[in-house]
Amino acid sequence: MTKYRKSEAQDWAWENLKGQWTTLFTPFDSDNKVDEEALRYNMRHIRGLGTRGAGCTWGMGEFWSLTQDERRRVMEIVSDEANGEWPIAAHITDTSLEEMVSLSKYAEQREFDLLILAPSYFVTKTEDQVVELTRQVADKTDLAIMFYNSPQFGIVLSPQGLKRITEIPNVVGVKEASFSQQISLETHVLLGKNSIISTPDEWIYWKEQELGFHQQVMFANTSDWRFDTPDENYYVQFIEKASRKELDTDLYDSHLRTIKQLSDKWWGETVKKAGGALPVSLAKAWGEMMGLKAGRVRPPLRDLSQQEKLDLRLELEQVRPQIKGVSASTISSSQNGNGKVPFIYQNGSAHQDVVDSSGMLLMVSVQNMAEALEAEQGGADVIDVKNLQEALVGSGHPILVKEARDAIPAEKHVSVTLGVVPNQAGTVAMAVYAAAQLQATSVKVGFMNTEYEEAVQILRDSKMALQGTETKLVGSLFADNLLYEGGLEPRMMNQLALETGCDGWLIDTLIKDGRNLFDFIPENELREMVLEGKSHGMSTALSGHLRMSDIDELARINPDIVGVRGAVCQKGDRDTDVAWEAVAQFKSEILKRKNGEIDPYAALVNDDKPQIVSDGLDGHWVVLDGRGKSCAGILAALADQTARDKQSFIETILGDRLNSYDVTMWAEKEGHNVITQREDIDGSLRMLIQPKK
Questions:
Q1: Under CATH, which number does the domain 359-604 receive?
Q2: Architecture of the domain defined by 610-690
Q3: What are 659-681's pLDDT values in tens digits?
Q4: Which residues are catalytic?
Q5: Which of 184, 267, 497, 690 shows the smallest number of beta carbons within 10 Å?
Q6: Torsion angles phi and psi, residue 507, rounded to 5
Q7: In the predicted model, what is the mean pLDDT of the chain?
């Protein structure tokens, strides 16, 4: 924090309020809580754009929706992350004078540099009331104050009223956001020589040349993180130059004018639809597309619709092509802790994985773009395009696959389900090839009553059709196949997938009479199948009318992917539309079991739980870091290590608690000893394994 006395506040402001100051939004997680790590991440991202300072709990920060504890917690995080190296401002407006004073004191305690204050938006109906309220707050704090003149607070002060405000000793200036050019211009001309006046729009720089005033700070504006990337921060460059009286019209015309026109269009339309409310929903959606972490807005505001988000992304890509496929999770998960891209083992060889695939990913089946966007918003890891209207499940239209792949961020999987395929190897291979050309992450080929050898040939031809592409081949059998004449035994899935070189497999169901996967194959058998598949380095997936009540069983089996539809549709009915809230709830329950918050074995008797055995220690020591790796990759790496070296102990580090059960079961099956397991300081689990001699 820059130290200054109350009497020095104006001098401090002239020296430090320069260039681009940003406005931070408040990110919320799937449980509608303040996402603290996302806030820290966003701050680091925005600082990387070159902004001079930042403000928190503004209108854009949804202060009106935050509890008092949440406001203080946001301030605490912002202060901690800024660490005295980045000037920060706190918005303290409230309906209670006592609370405003309390917030100002808390800002002082957290070493904020500046306060921003607006009318109290309920009883301040006259300029006299606003001036008096501001004076009473200013009297109780030594911090500099920027006054916020905006219709969002129920009253817009005239330039003469703003002059009275700035005569209060530590009120150093005005953010003049009345949306009236006349008021802005008169305020600059009347007050600009004695106080810092900032109009949050670039048109002011051309007007200052005409009228002879100067704006030295673009105070609390979102255009930095909506327009710029760390590699191309043209907006920040333009503002920095303009703040030094260097108006670079060529820079603006070349890199900013078209994106600003797009912003003005969407801003105006969103405000109009919301009846004049601040378009936080637009800013959050836009920010996510530029690499930030946002989450939803809180009521009574509403998020952009899925169609609006899609339209915005498509229009934004026209003026910012480099953002295609970018989202906050792309940036944050593209590297692991040591700065390297994570690898997993698959079919005996190492290859780069698409994402952090540490097990129990959520796959949601969709039939149209609206559902695809709902699934993505809810946090689905895999968007699976299929056609439930075709008999026994068929494939979605290729145009839908293309639209989904274009709209869904690159780090999310978009898979294609071909359903029950015909016994025609060439026809199926052509469909598989088409899925690859559409850049599907994977394509699933399913068999019901096909002869085993014929299924082998179809999958081999399909694998050949994928040569030179990144698309993975997933073989699929149905748990209820034996209900149909000539149905292919689902327990042959591992053999079929291994023999044909599939990258993974799926066990699903076809029947629609209320029964699900567990009605046809019991948990213990599914667990053995999944463990075997993982030991061969294949991804494993389970689906088939799965419900929320099945999550403990699924967690104990721990497939790489869990596929659902009905459980994440409106009212739990698979014939209705996918709803993002239901997707988020299902994903949340999975995460609770992955991070150890819920123990899926808790309801079992001790005899059913994996047992840990102990032994003495000798020999050498090898560390296998399984954080961010698939369970199949971990087991394959363990198998490779124990096959080559039976002398060394293996310390396996796991970020996913569910994977520990698989490692234990694998070790017991192979005759290895799990010596110890302990929780590390970062929450990961370390297991020590002694190989079988």
A1: 3.20.20.380
A2: 3-Layer(aba) Sandwich (3.40)
A3: 888 899 899 888 998 888 877 66
A4: 386, 444
A5: 267
A6: -105, 125
A7: 88
